[in-house]
Amino acid sequence: MEGVSSTTLLPEDWAARDDVAGQIGLVWELVRTPVIVPLLKVAVVVCLAMALMLFVERVYMGVALLLIKLLRRRPERQYKWEPIRDDVELGNTAYPMVLVYKFSIGAACGMSWPSDRIIIQVLDDSTDPVIQVSLVEVECQRWASKGINIRYENRDNRNGYKAGALKDGMEHDYAKGCDYVAIFDADFRPEPDFLWRTIPFLALNPDVALVQARWKYVNSGECLMTRMQEMSLDYHFNFEQEVGSSTYAFFGFNGTAGVWRIAALNEAGGWKDRTTVEDMDLAVRASLHGWKFVYLGNLKVKNELPSTFKAYRYQQHRWSCGPANLFKKMVMEIMKNKVSLWKKVHVLYSFFFVRKIVAHIVTFVFYCVVIPATVFVPEVEIPKWGAVYIPSLITLINAVGTPRSLHLLVFWILFENVMSLHRTKATFIGLLEAGRVNEWVVTEKLGDALKSKPAGKAPKKHRFRIGDR
């Protein structure tokens, strides 16, 4: 009909199309031009802006790391460092008193340090009496019989989860007499020289609060999923932690494989259980008090990666939900703080907003939803730089930290896109403080468990619900 637009539908059209597919097609034509197209155009603009933020952040990290390598800016050159030596007059009192938090036991007891200047504190908040008595306490008694100064501390509840256990551990009288505290999760196995390489940074630099070591994965080659995890975590340690330390800026405590100055920990307010990222919470508060952090990329502590998707998904929920929730709780506190404008911008914009919020949302919304949606709406165009060049460069920068896995790049992209759905969901849960905001599920690590199975005994197959699949 002359004068009638292509999207105008007459009553007789509805009668002619009585099948379901026809009805859906008519509804689509009704909402496509006036609703879908404008919304999609707005989404494209917003997503392109977020993609540019992420791209600038990645390029900055890459350029900064390149300069760090060219200028050879190692922590030993930036800070005072020399081996701690015996003092004939003072004896072992010349060594700082070190408290070692340990959620497992073996490697901590094997660390080299004067025996009267170190306390191994095993924190156990397991509610399973078999684990408590038969495993943990017996192991502690075995090491104590060898002359190790080891203390077994058990809670009958899990209030505050890890933060609660750490807070309770600091309240014992023997802990209050220590200068530093080294923290290791259950699956972390430090080398015997760990304290010799970290304590001098704290002892000789009174403005340093934290020395963080790098993680080394003993089961990264166990399956394709652990290889993908290694690629993602290598970027974090190779770029984010290295650049944050070398530029005297800020980087987050990883919750394990690090040594804290107890005075700095107390000044910052101690351990708080208001979010599931008590490590990041403490690091931000300490940084706002002016303390510096040192990252040692050449000091590696062995640990395991989650080797089941269910365990990894729960871990990523906590790692995505917690930072978003902490950002919401601390944004005004950071803005009102008296630290420099540069530090405020770095912590709020770079550390929190771009890395912990934008990175997850743009990966899912833009690359998994908006770009595929434009296939059905050709009126909405995405510039080639936004759809091809920027994502490609971001991917290459992320992957260059793990050269041995470059041939798995396509699988890594698919894996990260799948995980972006879970991370985006967790991010919004954290920002909105929804139902699972404080959920803490202990991450299952299966590497050593599988190795320790008796010969000839097949590993138990886990049953998965439909939802888990």
UniProtKB/TrEMBL annotation:
Keywords: Cell wall biogenesis/degradation, Glycosyltransferase, Golgi apparatus, Membrane, Transferase, Transmembrane, Transmembrane helix
Enzyme Commission number(s): 2.4.1.32
One Pfam short name: Glyco_trans_2_3
Source organism superkingdom: Eukaryota
Main location: Golgi
Residue ranges crossing the lipid bilayer per the database entry: 42-68, 357-377, 389-415
Single GO term (MF): glucomannan 4-beta-mannosyltransferase activity
Domain Glycosyltransferase 2-like: 180-370
GO cellular component annotations of the record: Golgi membrane
Catalytic activity: GDP-mannose + (glucomannan)n = GDP + (glucomannan)n+1
Record localization: Golgi apparatus membrane
PANTHER family documented for this protein: GLUCOMANNAN 4-BETA-MANNOSYLTRANSFERASE 3-RELATED (PTHR32044:SF21), GLUCOMANNAN 4-BETA-MANNOSYLTRANSFERASE 9 (PTHR32044)
Protein name as catalogued: glucomannan 4-beta-mannosyltransferase
The species this protein was found in: Spirodela intermedia (Intermediate duckweed)
